[in-house]
Amino acid sequence: MARKNKKQVLTDILISDYAAEGKALARHEGKVIFITGAVPGDTADVLLTKSKKDWAEGRALGIKSYSPHREQPFCKHFGICGGCKWQMLPYPLQLQYKEQEAVQNLKRIGHVTIPEILPIVGADETRHYRNKLEFTFSNREYIVDLQAKNDNEGDEGPPAQGALGFHVPRIFDKVIDIETCYLMDEVNNSIRNTIRTYAIANKFSFYDIRQHTGWLRNIIIRYCSTGELMVNICLNYEDEGNRKLLLDHLLQQVPAITTLLYTINPKWNDSIHDLEPQTYFGKGYVMEKLEDLQFKVSPKSFFQTNTRQAEKLYTVTRDFAALTGNEIVYDLYCGTGSIGLFVSGKAKKVIGVEVVEDAIVDAKENAAINNIHHAVFFAGDVIKICDDDFFALHGRPDVVITDPPRAGMHEKLVKKLLEIAAPRIVYVSCNTATQARDIGLLSEKYEVQKIQPVDMFPHTHHIECVALLTLKG
Hints:
single chain
């Protein structure tokens, strides 16, 4: 019999189902408990971190008996690193839980009548699927011994020679030293391990996030389906002599690199959107492909991080748009124009709107590269841009495609879409909860015709979902 002790630890709890956002679900004494670190079928001791009248949150302290559905994780860093948290779940089960989350959110949050959801589109490759990775240098390595690992606790240890890898979840100043990462082709391991070994041998200092000292800060790798490979090394300050030594050594050891850059970042944060990467070798950018379209990807460009699944996602979007060649398509949150350009072959005109000016510069260049002259792009807030004068000049939309960030669409934009009243809206989302919320608001004039989940990130709980909405009546 499960019992609660003074530390609010529930023992021998049977995990019965999957909830959302990677959490499992159990029920105890009439209360629903959302649990991290366990999967359906496990029996675990659970430490409660939050407890309300009808529900609670907690984490598994230890697994008493494992679910028969578990499988052996393939990465030695599993359970410590914050990525690939679902390695212990067979991929078909991952897809089942992701599809289940999409259904539950649309029904529970959207409160709208939805059709039968189409089967989730899975990935053909569940490893080495990412085209972009970012690793962090730190003079504070997160060290975990076997006992601490079993207890889900770690010992930071004294400052090490240097770690290069991923930040520890919820610990801002420590980094896990990653030997092998399966998210990208093996070339990522060659780059990272080559740099670490050379840096330690030459006593190059690793960044200290607390003191804002140290030289080496980050590595950003982008490896395209075209075979082009871009590496950007971010440094806290300029040290020309050592920089040349490091970059030359990397080019010698990893000849697959087609573009090598460095960025001097003296700021306290790691973002480079307001900095200028410097090209050391190559043309300063890489080319990526989606179907027959080419896209220029510069060091600060946004591009979907799973190229093959992006093709599937955009194909679903194009199919839902049901274009005949006569439609004016508005692509909102268009970014670098990838979706708008992808569907442009079947559209009369594509109008992209994006608040980030640099992205619009890339979108216009990508249109020119592909000789697409009926796609135009505008930088600014869609609420301000899309007025009567704009429609008079460019035409009212027959189809609106919207692909907002995780926070979903601003309520003012939802009202704007209701005002525009395009016959079809194709809503692409990386967060089914906010998508469901927005669809609920749009239900004033729209009804849902199709729902298609797409898995972009195997071994994680993240999911993309495409919804087709049509005007009522």
